[in-house]
Write a structure and sequence with these properties.
Distance between the termini: 14 Å
Structural class: mainly beta
Helix content: under 10%
Radius of gyration: 22 Å
């Protein structure tokens, strides 16, 4: 083995562990050798971005950060949230960090296993940039929750702060006259990012030059009102955000004059099979929006995974999605008083699809909406912060084989003892449960979900999850839903010997 090869292997493994975003696969991808070739290591550093929550003086926003207990890298760690305009400079652990007068973190996490929270009132909250390293990096999660008591978008709006990337799909966006949809583009880096925003309606791509080459300056956030990108009103759209250069975090804030609002997160990457977990049992209206970005149309079987099994919604057993065109279908009160999740599978030749649900609760003037995008399974572990003693509901769905998961409620922000419970999710069903609460809870807490038997490569089936947070006020059923994909606390790093075989071919 020559020295250059050794150095390259070490660099690849180190990069994977540090970033938490690189995944290395063994060659051929078959047989036990491939399965044994990769080891999962805790990430050493991670970053998250929180969009500007509100411009309303009547809004109240809270941020909750949490790192699950685990085998983090090193003996110490640091996790901070700062306004995106103040860059967090990463320095070696033994190097002094330059301090500025206004360099005070908005929120600081110090101990894995205990969430911390901070609050903002009024319309002055900026976009936030957070970094975590050492013991606080693996699975670090930040939840942003805003309560609007009155006005457009009235209700509870929640968002998981997300990692920067270069490609996002948002089925379920709109330029309808009653909607105000903004896509927030936040750049965490020291160089400018150039972003394209494309819109697709029921007849295909919408012609617009305004969405091309949007400049997002370093450590800044740019809100773009979607209705300014198209002269026509469209109730159901799919938006594609791509970075020509640099990287950004992207999230859509949707406000409706009559139906409240919430954040629309990006859908999981295009795939032929999709799971949209956690439709509330009392949903009065559910709208499915789907888009096929590939060259082929998609024919999908639509199933509702209910507590007792999977059924086809009446009149909507199949869905045809034309290539490059947005398709929407109203499913009504499809859950009929029981928790449910939507499962989309190909009926014939598989074609990639992205999808999201717009869910409404309440009636008349007392209605509120939230969004549920297609998501990935919980994987090794999934984490969600900002749970309360009352109003936190967890939905677990096993679209294939039966799976078993352990759900752990952390200590509270102000006190409480962690507790865990194990749940079995039968194949083809959704299990809706009141989230476990730590004993002696004070403040809010976090939930982690881990497969006991199941998940990728396990003896059981994959489990998907979401958390609904609700808070009724003046008869309005305010709520928000966050999906629980893998929290990316670990990364797959191949053995050096396997890398050598690849390099020597």
């Amino acid at each position: 083995m020559n020295r250059t090869t050794q150095s390259l292997i070490a660099a690849v493994a180190a990069l994977a562990a540090v970033t938490g975003f690189a995944v290395a696969n063994a060659p051929d991808g078959s047989g036990d050798d491939g399965a044994k070739a990769a080891a999962r290591l805790p990430v050493e550093r991670t970053s998250l971005l929180c969009p500007v929550p509100s411009s309303s003086d009547l809004a109240e926003t809270s941020y909750t950060a949490f790192t699950p207990k685990g085998e983090g890298s090193g003996k110490t760690g640091r996790a901070e949230l700062l306004p995106a305009t103040r860059a967090l400079k990463v320095t070696p652990e033994d190097a002094p960090r330059e301090k500025k007068k206004d360099d005070k973190p908005f929120l600081t996490s110090k101990t894995p296993g205990k969430p911390v929270t901070g609050e903002e009132s009024g319309g002055e909250s900026p976009a936030l940039l957070g970094t975590a390293d050492g013991t606080l990096a693996p699975g670090w999660t930040v939840q942003q929750t805003t309560k609007y008591s009155v006005g457009s978008g009235r209700g509870l709006q929640g968002a998981n702060c997300t990692a920067p990337d270069t490609d996002f799909w948002f089925p379920g966006a709109s330029t309808d006259k009653d909607r105000s949809d903004y896509v927030h583009l936040t750049n965490p880096d020291d160089t400018a990012a150039v972003v394209d925003v494309e819109l697709y309606g029921p007849d295909g791509a919408l012609k617009t030059e305004v969405g091309e080459a949007i400049q997002v300056q370093p450590h800044s956030s740019v809100p773009v009102l979607l209705s300014t990108l198209s002269p026509k009103e469209h109730t159901n759209l799919t938006m594609h955000v791509t970075a020509r250069s640099g990287r950004v975090a992207a999230a859509v804030q949707s406000s409706d004059d009559k139906l409240g609002g919430d954040w629309l997160p990006a859908s999981a990457d295009p795939a032929s099979r999709l799971v949209l977990p956690g439709i509330p049992k009392d949903a009065t209206s559910v709208r499915l929006v789907a888009f096929a970005p590939g060259a082929d149309d998609a024919d999908l079987k639509v199933q509702l995974a209910a507590p007792s099994g999977s059924i086809s919604p009446a009149g909507h057993a199949n869905l045809h999605v034309k290539s490059g065109m947005t398709t929407a279908v109203d499913l009504g009160d499809v859950t009929k008083g029981e928790a449910g999740s939507l499962i989309l599978t190909p009926t014939d030749d598989a074609a990639p699809v992205v999808a999201a649900l717009r869910v409404t609760r309440g009636k008349g003037v007392d209605q509120e909406t939230a969004f549920i995008p297609a998501t990935n399974p919980i994987g090794t572990r999934a984490t969600v912060a900002d749970n309360r003693a009352k109003g936190s509901t967890l939905s677990l769905v096993a679209p294939g084989r039966t799976g078993k998961v352990k759900v752990t409620a952390s200590a509270g922000t102000e006190g409480g003892t962690p507790t865990s419970k194990t749940y079995t999710v039968k194949g083809g069903t959704t299990l809706g449960i009141k989230a476990p609460v730590p004993s002696g809870l004070k403040g809010t807490y976090a939930l982690t979900v881990e497969p006991v038997s199941g998940g990728s490569g396990g003896s059981g089936g994959d489990v998907y999850a979401s958390r609904m947070l609700e808070e009724a006020e003046d008869g309005v059923p305010m709520f928000t839903v966050q999906t629980l994909p893998d929290d990316r606390g670990t990364v797959s790093v191949p053995k050096a010997e396997q890398d050598l075989k690849v390099l020597q071919k």
